[in-house]
Amino acid sequence: MARAARSGTRLDIAIVALCVVLSLLALALPQRTRDPVAGALRRTLMAPLVTVQRGAEQWRVAWLESERLALGRDTLALAAADANALRLENDRLRALLGLGGRLGWGFVPAEALQETGRPHDLITSLVLSAGSNAGIATYNPVVGPDGVIGLVQSTDPRSSIVMLFSHPDFRVSAMTVDGSVFGIVYPHAGSGSEAYLLELRNVVFRTLLKPGTLIITSGLGGTFPRGIPIGHVIAEIRSTEGWSRTYLVRPTANPADVTAVMVMTAQRAAQGAGNVWALPASADSAQHRLVTVADSVARQAAAVEAARQRAHVDSLRADSARADSARRAGGGR
Fold it and tell me: What single-letter DSSP state applies at residue 182?
């Protein structure tokens, strides 16, 4: 085996030496003779190597182009994601500015110091960028463009902590928009997609709420003013208690997406929310009033037309009766 290895090594050395000699001879040849010899070598002995080199170069170019296209797609995807995030953020800020314009006074805007878009983490509290130096006090209601967010739990000079409606200790008095049904809103003990759901408890048993019914704050308790949206009824929760009903409520706001809020002062809360949040029932009641007025006008017009027709018929009958009397009187004479 050692002898075969030595013979293989000698053969390799001989081939290398032959290649070096041939290279030197090729370099020593005149230009006129060198080019035909080089062309013949490329077409015969070096043809496979040239083909391999050409394929490798094409593969390298294709790989660089693919990498460039992938980088371009990733850049476009990141730009689209950033644009969508900026659009959502602008929409939230516009809605918050609109809420501030409708409130007019008695509120403190604050930024929520949290990482947004965490659907799998149950968030029960928030840290705000404003505190007692800005006029925020304990138990001030915290609201957003969509409705109730929570209430201030504690304050520092430059920050404050908010108890969200998902906190186990959160409670708020609630009612329907028309004021016919009252109850207390509690956080729902759920997980996953039901983490932020609420429960409307202590509803009178004889009252039935349809899915989609809007629940708002009732103003009872002195913390939240009346008329702030809380959520929409999903369905009734079966309970063992037979004297009241409990309904599952989907909140109008999502704490995981909160980036900025409005903290209402105690004076503003005592003044009331008024028509700050456009409630669907307001438009429905206005439309109902318009329909009622239109129906009343239509009924009055129909009554006037009927009276005119009756008067016309009575007039025709009177004319016919006078004509008959005249004919009878003429025949008698």
Answer: E
Rounded to whole angstroms, the Cα distance separating 241 from 299 reads 49
> Is there a contact between 136 and 263 (Cβ–Cβ < 8 Å)?
yes
Per DSSP, the three-state class of 303 is helix
Query: Three-state SS for 202?
Result: strand
CA distance 133 to 159: 9
Q: List, for residues 84-117, the tens digit of each pLDDT value.
A: 766 777 777 777 777 888 888 889 999 888 765 5
Q: Which amino acid is at 173?
A: S
Residue 189 corresponds to which tokens in the numbers above? 């003990």
Q: Cα–Cα distance between 240 and 259 in angstroms, integer?
A: 40
- DSSP helix/strand/coil, 154: strand
For residues 114 and 257, what is the distance between their CA atoms, to the nearest angstrom?
A: 9
Tell me which residue of 260, 231, 240, 241 sits closest to 165, measured CA to CA.
231
Q: In one letter, which amino acid is 197?
A: L
291-304 burial, b for 16+ CB within 10 Å, e for fewer? eeeeeeeeeeeeee
Residue among 276, 284, 292 at smallest CA distance from 212: 284
Query: Domains of the chain, with CATH numbers?
Result: 107-282 (2.40.10.350)
Contact 160, 128 (CB under 8 A): yes
> Distance from first CA to last CA of the chain, Å, rounded?
166
The side-by-side arrangement of strands in the sheet containing 147-155 is 107-111, 260-264, 141-144, 147-155, 160-164, 125-128
Nearest residue to 231 via CA among 208, 255, 207: 255
CB-neighbour burial class of residue 94 (10 A; exposed 0-12, middle 13-18, buried 19+): exposed
Residue with tokens 């929760």: 237
Is pTM, for the whole model, over 0.70? no
Among 85, 172, 164, which Cα is nearest to 127's?
164
Task: For residue range 157-212, list pLDDT tens digits in order.
Answer: 999 999 999 999 999 999 999 989 999 999 998 777 788 899 999 998 888 899 99
Q: What is the C-alpha separation between 110 and 93, in angstroms, rounded?
A: 12
Q: What sections of the chain are H helices per DSSP? A: 2-28, 31-43, 47-103, 266-271, 280-332
